[in-house]
Structure formats: structure tokens, C-alpha cells
Write a structure and sequence with these properties.
The chain is 59% helix and 3% strand. The termini are far apart. The chain has 232 residues and is mainly α. It contains ten helices and two strands. The protein has one domain (34-207). It has a two-stranded antiparallel ribbon. The relative contact order is 0.14. A hairpin with a 2-residue loop joins strand 1 and strand 2 (94-96).
Amino acid sequence: MTPKAEHTEPHPHRMSHKKSPHRLRQAFWVFLEHWSPRLLILFALITFCCRHLLGPWTYQDGFLGAIMVVFWGFQEWFVHNFLLHWKPMTLLGREIDLTIAISHREHHAQPWDVDMAFTPLQVYTWAPFVLVGFWFLATPSAELALTGILSYIVLGLHYEWFHFLVHTRYHPKNRYYRQLWRNHRMHHFKNEHFWYGMTLLYGDLFFKTNPTYKNTPFSAHCQDLLAEKHPY
């Protein structure tokens, strides 16, 4: 291969980027081609119908939904920081790693591959059971349990949708979503130790992982999360 041909050979990340959707309508249909959002939409419809059949919605449902929004921002931060960025550890001579962390490392390695922007399907083999069990144990009625489950699923679907969009060529028009878009892009291409929030900002604000762009050093390990053993 001549030097000129080698220079013009496209990078695989750029190829994926060129093929990714750049319009919202196009992105919506690509989004629905993936199993994770399909399952979340199905679960949301089933849960909504079950809750509706049990009786009228009350202020308690709205209050629980608001609590879930507050909780979600902190959950995003904790899950992203401690589970998705989990480093393999050895215990009693055996390496312990997490499937979602392995998948997330692959996502960081190929950020323009939209297929890797979704929750791994393995999560759906156990997460729905944990979710249902928790809410029916934690709430005094089936109505509130279903409201809690529905709130969690809707917030999860919103997470999947926006995370997918950030890894396409679409640029949000809304000011709030532009800030979220910029934060997540900086997490992938500026420094992986900051900007853990995906759909809500206050987790990063509370834990002070939302520095200004100019004051944040570039990390050489954004696309290789295991290259560095210790964070900054």
C-alpha cells in the first residue's frame, strides 16, 4: 500500500460516524431497530395498562414520580462512576468483572458505534425481576408499586434515547439538551473521570464532577478505560 493510499484509508470510527443518523426522524427509526428500547417501550405499556386498571391516578402517583426524577440523577452518577467504570479486581485468586463494565469499555473504545450505546440485553434477564420485587416490597400498595416501576422504565427509556442521540451526528436544538450533549461528548473525548450524568446535571454538580472545559486536562485513556489503574 502506498503512503498516499494509507493516508486516505478511512478510520473505522469515522466510518461509523458517517453512517450514523443526523436528523431526528431518521434517528428515531434507527433507535427502534434496537432491542433495548423495544423492550422498554413494551414494559412501559404493560405497566401503564396494569396501573390504569387498578384505579384512578392520585397525587401520590405524581409525588412518587417526582421523587424518582430526583433519585434518577444521583443513580446515573453512581451507576456510571462505580459500575460502568468498574475496574476488574482479583478476589481469592479469581478475577471479578462486570458484564455492563465490559460492554461500557467497548463503548468507550468505539464511541461512534451506535449499536454499543444501548444497555446490554443480558441486563434484561435479571433487572426486571429486581425492579418488580423492589417496588412491591417498598410500597404499601400495588398502585404505587406500578407507578414506581413505570417511572423507572420511562426514565430509563429517556436515558437510552438521549444517550443514543449523543453518539449520532444529530445536534440537539434545546439549550438544556445541548449542555447534556456537550457534557457527554467531553466525557468521551476530553476526560473520562468527569461528566457522569447523562440526562440530568445535578449529580455532577453535587459531586463536583462538572468542571469547566478549559480547566480540565485531556486524558489519554478516554477510549481505553483499563489503560490507567488510578483516576486523577
